[in-house]
Amino acid sequence: MERLREIEKPLLKWYRQNKRALPWRVEKDPYEIWISEIMCQQTRVEVVKDYFERFLEALPTVRDLAECPEERLMKLWEGLGYYNRVRNMQKAAQQVMGLYGGQLPADYEALKGLKGIGDYTAGAIAAIAYGIPVPAVDGNVLRVVSRVLESREDIARQSVRRQIGQKIQAVMPTDCPGDYDQALMELGALICLPGAQAKCGQCPLKGICLAAAHGTAAKLPVKTRSKPRRIEERTVLVIQDGDCVAIRKRAAKGLLAGLYELPNVKGHLKEEETLSWVREMGLGPLRIRPLGEAKHIFSHVEWRMRGYQIRVQQLDERRQGDMIFARAEEVQEKYAIPSAFDAFIRKG
Ligand code: SF4
């Protein structure tokens, strides 16, 4: 524990001199911290900046988020993936409206009672926005602490993550917990990089860190692999009639629930099979052009996709079965289409 206590001064000094200028670090507003933390969970900070500003401009308050129509919300989140996160954020915003008058509670346990807010996000909001001394343990923090202590405990285990959180809580300063949490995260993001990329030579903790002293950083932290992703083959169709493209709404439950997609079917179809499928949909195909292959990785599934562009006869009706034919500008403005389809949208 003493070793961990020693990191405070050099860590905070380094953070104050080297932290990145991020839009959500300016005001320390709980709503902004919340949104940024959810956005940053799977996406690089540089990419999040633009999304964050656009989202805040469209939905500047908890009330705006609570009342936002679903399609607009999905559109604002388009490209960030993990759409359940934004759905949960909206449910939590509704809870905040009902229970706390629109202000996120300044209480760690109460924050954890909100939909989609776990230990990490509650810790970040509580410490950064409200100055409550609680840890915010993300992957970066787990890596830094495991290396400083040269711990070989498996960070995939919830109990180990909890123990690391308790160790941080025992040594973190009470006068600037937000800076301390962010400093640990920032060090993991900029210096204590995964695998062999750790920049120990530039690290303010070099003289304290056991992994640096013993040359074990590249092997730490220990993390057992979760089970491999299921591979799913799909054939994706860019069906166009003149200036419109066919899209359809996905089911209300399951992967990418409620979003829009390019029509697609399971398996890798050949051209003839694809044309038969299009005819079965009641459309008259005129031409088919292969668009090559692409893959997209979700948390538990990997799609290996084969694409075709299909030109069909001009339609009188803008709807055909469950398909909607929409102009490119309409798709751009109105319908949230997950990035899994980007490769074919670009080529189509
Ligand atoms: S000295 Fe190296 S391993 Fe230790 S915390 Fe710094 S970057 Fe990570």
- Uncertain runs are none
The N- to C-terminal Cα distance equals 58 Å
Gross morphology: elongated
CATH class of the largest domain, please? Answer: Mainly Alpha
What's the mean pLDDT score? 93
CATH architecture of the largest domain: Orthogonal Bundle
Number of domains: 2
Q: Please identify which CATH superfamily of the largest domain we are dealing with.
A: Hypothetical protein, domain 2
Number of helices: 17
Protein architecture, described:
This protein is α+β, with helices and mostly antiparallel strands. The chain folds into 2 domains: 2-219, Endonuclease III, domain 1 (Orthogonal Bundle); 230-347, Nucleoside Triphosphate Pyrophosphohydrolase, CATH 3.90.79.10. It contains 17 helices and 8 strands. The chain has helices at residues 2-6, 8-18, 24-27, 30-40, 45-58, 62-67, 70-77, 83-100, 108-112, 119-130, 139-148, 158-171, 177-190, 210-214, 271-280, 328-334, 342-347; strands spanning 230-241, 244-249, 260-261, 264-266, 285-297, 301-312, 319-320, 323-327. Strands 1, 2, 3, 4, 5, 6, 7 and 8 form an 8-stranded mixed beta sheet that branches. Strand 1 (230-241) and strand 2 (244-249) form a beta hairpin. Helix 4 (30-40) crosses helix 5 (45-58) and helix 11 (139-148) crosses helix 13. The chain is elongated and about 75 Å long. It starts with a helix and ends with a helix. It binds iron/sulfur cluster. Iron/sulfur cluster is lined by residues 144, 147-148, 191-192, 198-200, 203, 205-206, 209, 211-212, 217.
